[in-house]
Amino acid sequence: MGHMYVLDACALVAFVKKEIGFDIVRNILIEASEGKAEVYMNKLNLYEVYYGIHRMEGIAKADEVFNMVQRLPIAIIDGIADNVFREASRIKSSYKMSLADSIALGTASVMGAFLITSDHHEFDTVEAGEAIKFCWIR
After folding, report:
1. How many CA atoms lie within 13 A of 95 on its CB side?
2. Would you tell me how many other CB atoms lie within 10 Å of the CB of residue 40?
3. 77-129 pLDDT, tens per residue?
4. Which helix (H) or strand (E) holds 56?
5. What angle do CA 18, 24, 26 make, to 5 degrees?
6. In this structure, are residues 44 and 33 in contact, taking their beta carbons and an 8 Å threshold?
7. Which pLDDT score, from 0 to 100, does residue 49 have?
8. ∠ CA 126-98-28 to the nearest 5 degrees?
9. Is 108 exposed, middle or buried (0-12, 13-18, 19+ CB in 10 A)?
10. Residue 41 bridge partners (DSSP)
11. How many whole angstroms separate alpha carbon 83 and alpha carbon 78?
12. Phi-psi region of 18 (alpha: psi -120 to 50; beta: other; left: phi over 0)
């Protein structure tokens, strides 16, 4: 098995909307479909994508994207394990970020996975101060 990855909401949005970085996410998902990588996403981060699309494009489009994601080689983590809860809390108390971003980071940290993201604004300081691995899509 290859690398493990955790998808941040902005990486999934880039993939869905074919924004810059789409190809990086697509290639990782291809690796996952071939059994060469594992990709995870916390349902809270998927929620970010869902409500954003719902707000901007309506519920039909949000449901379409949600159903598509369920067919992708992404293991959706439905809940927050105690070790992720503690790690996300530790990270959030040290850096300014959203709750959902801290969950993505906590998940990646606990799993020893790469966080797939484009969110330099939130995560550059984290990358400089933590041992968390990042896969920047732009």
Report:
1. 22
2. 19
3. 999 999 999 999 999 999 999 999 999 999 999 999 999 999 999 999 999 99
4. helix 43-57
5. 65
6. no
7. 98
8. 65
9. buried
10. 76
11. 14
12. left
Strand residues in the chain grouped as ranges (E): 4-7, 38-42, 75-77, 114-117, 133-136
For 4-136, CATH number? 3.40.50.1010
The model scores a pTM over 0.85: yes
39 in Cβ contact with 75 (< 8 Å): yes
Residues 105, 25, 13, 114, Cα dihedral to 10°: 0
Tokens, residue 51? 């409500």
Q: 42 in helix, strand or coil?
A: strand
Q: Which residues contact 24 (CB under 8 A, 6 or more apart)?
A: 116, 135, 137
**Half-sphere exposure of residue 118: CA atoms within 13 angstroms, side-chain side:** 16
For residue 109, give the 3-state DSSP assignment.
helix
- Note whether 84 and 106 are within 8 A (CB): yes
Residue at token pair 């101060």? 129
Boundaries of every domain in the chain = 4-136
Cβ atoms < 10 Å from Cβ of 57: 12
